[in-house]
Design brief:
Elements: H1 20-29, H2 31-46, H3 50-56, H4 58-65, H5 79-106, H6 108-127, H7 132-160, H8 166-191, H9 199-205, H10 208-218, H11 225-232, H12 235-246, H13 252-265, H14 271-274, H15 281-295, H16 299-312, H17 317-345, H18 347-372, H19 381-399, H20 402-413, H21 419-448, H22 451-470, H23 483-487, H24 492-507
Helix pairs in contact: 2-7, 2-8, 2-10, 2-16, 3-4, 5-6, 5-7, 5-21, 6-7, 6-9, 6-10, 7-8, 7-20, 7-21, 8-9, 8-17, 8-20, 11-12, 11-13, 15-20, 15-21, 16-17, 17-18, 17-19, 18-19, 18-22, 20-21
Length: 508
Amino acid sequence: MAVGLAISREGSHYNGRMTSFVVLSCMMAAMGGVIFGYDIGISGGVTSMEPFLKKFFPEVYRKMKEDTEISNYCKFDSQLLTSFTSSLYVAGLVASFFASSITKAFGRKPSILLGGAAFLAGAALGGAASNVFMLIFGRVLLGVGVGFANQSVPLYLSEMAPPRYRGAVNNGFQFSVGIGALSANLINYGTEKIKGGWGWRISLAMAAVPASILTLGALFLPETPNSLIQRANNHERAKLVLQRVRGTTDVQAELDDLIKASSISRTVENPFKNIIRRKYRPQLVMAIAIPFFQQVTGINVIAFYAPILFRTIGLGESASLLSSIVTGVVGTTSTFISMLVVDKLGRRALFIFGGIQMFVSQVMVGGFMAAELGDHGGMDKGYACLVLILICVYVAGFGWSWGPLGWLVPSEIFPLEIRSAGQSIVVAVSFLFTFIVAQTFLSMLCHFKSGIFFFFGVWVVIMTAFVYFLLPETKNMPIEKMDIVWREHWFWKRIVGEAVDDSKMETA
């Protein structure tokens, strides 16, 4: 079976270039990624800090410090502790559906603004928390902010970017997530050393910095031409914005495609009901499968619980936080590399290469932990360093494949009439399975022990095969002409082609 594609890129070149206006707008919007990444990194760090555990989770602290009978893999197994991490994603799951309506009715910009404001409130509450209920309520507010930001920012980036640079610009969202996580790891490493045991408050409250930049910056962001046409049918204003962001006055071809897409979108009364139609089946499958697969790569084992994992293999508190910085640098660097090559190599090649890399490193980590780490005591320092290196290899594989592409591909495949609904499904599925993984990981680690890495490795094999057979290449294709890739794909054309034929017969 020939799975490779040679898709004709009709209309794939609009006039325009990457302007400084686009770069500045996208940098500001990408602060939504920074606050998301910061929160991921900060939660893993503070949950390994002894003063934080002693204040809010004393049972976990007791098991870690005093219980000599409990397994290495079970010291941090606490549903209350995982609720601190995972409560954000339940809130984000609910918020993403409200965000869809606001994004469609009022534009991408108001959703970004609301996301930043909610995150500000959550950061303030977390930094001032005096009990576990305040702590978790602060996380819920952070979740509302992340739900709005993750729904609107990837759409904003994809709609503002010129088609041939869309991959690099949208991957900037994941790069921003990496920057946020790395910043959190550095701050955790510094605040852990503060005498008095209150450094965790600084770690949690510092989330207000990127949230403030996003909230204030959103006031000055331009709305996307796509949204201007969809909401107000304001062709003249949309044309002016398009000329400004493309750096040329000759934008009529792209404007015509936007107007055509908008006129189609107005015929759709309920996008959530419409998205289940046969003609949108490929997009719906990808909206569910890609964020699901992104979460079962096992990356959240590293993102949320890296310091805890490194403490499990015998590293101290400070060394564990330092190791998290190392993996953060690797992840951010690999995502930056992905930004440089994604529009040249394409999405499929990075997905497949990254999947193979992640699988090999996961199997090796699981093997070394099975052989060298028992239920009690630590791992030899040489093997612990080798495990750290292999985890870095794994993080690099995720950083240039499923990390950025898990947000890029869904954001660029939806027609305008179902775009906000489709992105909401992507965010909701992502948050749902992030919550499940975050809530169950410490318990799974306790029961599966080193087998947890083989469990995620099997999923990596499945998702790599899924991409190889079912995901067409989308590089350089204008976002409003993306239906071409499905009509010419060996599998999806059987479904989409029949749907198109059916609609033509109904019209006749």
